[in-house]
Amino acid sequence: MNRKGAKKPTVIPIRDEGHSKFSKMIDKSMNHYLNDLSKDWRGIVLLMFLYILQGIPLGLAGSIPLILQNRNVTYQEQAIYSFVFWPFSLKLLWAPFIDSVYSLKFGRRKSWLVPTQLAIGLFMYCFSYRADAVLYGGANPSGKPDVPLLATIFFALTFLATVQDVAVDAWALTILSRDNIGWASTCNSVGQSAGFFIGNAVFLVLESKDFCNAYLRPLWDYSPQESGLITISDFLYFWSIVFVLTTILIAIFVQEKNSFECDNAEHEEIANLGIVGTYRILLRIIRMPNVQILLLQLLTVKVGFSPVDALTGLKLIEYGVPKERIAALAVILTPVEIFLPLVISKYTSGPRPMDIYLWAIFPRLVMGLALAGAVYVTPYFRMADHQFPLWYYVVLMLTFGLHQIFHFSFYVSQVAFFAQISDPLVGGTYMTLLNTGANLGGDWPNTVSLWLADYLNIRRCEAGVCETVIDAYFIEVTACFIIGCLWLYLFRARSRRLQDIPTKTWRIIKQ
Length: 511
Prior knowledge:
Elements: H1 19-33, H2 41-69, H3 75-81, H4 87-90, H5 95-100, H6 110-127, H7 131-136, H8 147-175, H9 183-207, H10 209-216, H11 232-253, H12 265-271, H13 275-286, H14 289-300, H15 306-318, H16 323-348, H17 353-377, H18 390-421, H19 427-452, E1 458-462, E2 465-470, H20 472-500
């Protein structure tokens, strides 16, 4: 791209003095992107499929709060349910066990991947016989959903998904060549997004009575019904069969190559660590000064995003927007979520993925304010028939779409950096440690935001009647925007220095 007469691309400078450096970064990234993918295409397809499977139960778990919001549950109950996603923040506790206990004959990663995915399929199959009653209130004398039971069940399902995630993340480090390791983050993002879309948006649309009666049943001249085309039980039953059958095929036909070749005695020792030894290696990784700085950043960077991420969809439903309309917006935006990581992968697969990560933070904070503004004006555009005009949904879609662009730029570059610095010798443990920091950095602020939503409202009371003057949501969004800007000021330079450190510095063995 720097040949004489070649037109230079127009890019947004990442640092005031570093426009030329950023251009060089793009040049190097393009060279990485143009590497021959023929030797890795099977691995890329397999990783994509495994991440799609992983995203389906997670998407289903993420759809439950939208259904609960229409069934008179409090934000405190929503906060209780939010613990469903905490296994991704706790998987560090069992990742070393997964990294050290396996059958080499069957495959180091398949030893956990195959039984875990079979367990997910069987779990979904068993729960499908009771899911409707638990979610729709039939199992509770009060007629309300059994939130604690739902939280317990989906916590267990998410736990199984985290075991699969540890195995797949570690497999990604060896199934791809080092030249194309940046594709691991693309497979992660695209695959999980596609799976989450199926489990979330597709399920919500097909489960909605109103949406199916208005748009789907008329296509086949079917009369309106009192339920959607499917229920949660139907969805669980179908995907349980898919999980079991495809996992059996992977167990039989996919061969796992050796994770690595030991080139000295210390490599050999680490390769054959037992359970206790692997946990010691985990502590060894945590003691690295670079890792400690990175974990501190990961645990705090998402505080600025938390109210928007945790509460925006719920507030839109509270203000009258049907949940199936929100799901339909997700359907429209799914191509962006799937293809955006593919577009930016030529930059994130290069040597400086954190430049994209840092660039995306402030626009994401600003778009969070824009989404909060869209929530604020929502009641003013609700018509007499309780519907909203088409242009309102267009504006909401554009605002949310821009927000998602920065969200995925942030996420893909983060995973690419993790893959770049993780040591393949203990790939499952190393990647899981970094992903745990990232997940916990999102989960704890989201849970706190949900919990505070019932307490931070500013109310005016007259004659025993109280009305909300300022919703807690807008207080939280404003405060966290300021916190996010402060984080960027404090950690921008530190984050850039981390990616300038030689890769060998992050390794267990520095040779």
